[in-house]
Predict the 3D structure of the following.
Amino acid sequence: MKIITGNPGTGKHTVAKIIAKKLNLDMIDINRVAIDEGIFEKRDGTLDVDINRLKRIITRNASKNSLLIGHLAPYLVSRNNVESAIVLRRNPYKLQSVYKKRKYGSKKAIENLGSEILGITYYDVVKKIGRNKTFQVDTSNKSISIVIKRIQAFFLGGKTQEDDVDWLGLVLKKGDLKRFFPY
Ligand SMILES: Nc1ncnc2c1ncn2[C@@H]1O[C@H](COP(=O)(O)OP(=O)(O)OP(=O)(O)O)[C@@H](O)[C@H]1O
Ligand SMILES: [Mg+2]
């Protein structure tokens, strides 16, 4: 299967359907599966998902032709089943405005921003399937059609020059470390 992942708000769902259609892939939307299967459970006022159960369902439903979408993707697959993975990235200052619009609580926002700045999803994908099968695209200053083109090129043709992402460097340069890591 192929994967499009990245932190919440990086642009996965904006491109997923179009990519699936263009490449004739069966889209599996992890959020959708979790809702349909009713596997959210409430804990500390936030919604947590039962990863093991979700993993079993995904494994059962996925095929070679699947396109798995969602920020939890790296934790729901095994190395052998994944052909290639896209990790969408977004400038934390821009991501913060997405979270404001979505009215994320401060804990949820700060957790996801910290994760994006440290590149945790990218790191976890590379750890799971290897660097040569992973490609990151910075969506901060790209139109949706350019993002789609970059993803398509990687899925069809393999790895080319990757976007350079250094959010931690950016945040340090702006003196905003405390703003994003207040605890
Ligand atoms: N390439 C892009 N350029 C500008 N804005 C974009 C781009 N891609 C997505 N957006 C905007 O960013 C916001 C978040 O995008 P989207 O909802 O697709 O993120 P997501 O990764 O699917 O999030 P989640 O994991 O929470 O489902 C939306 O307001 C969307 O319109
Ligand atoms: Mg989405």
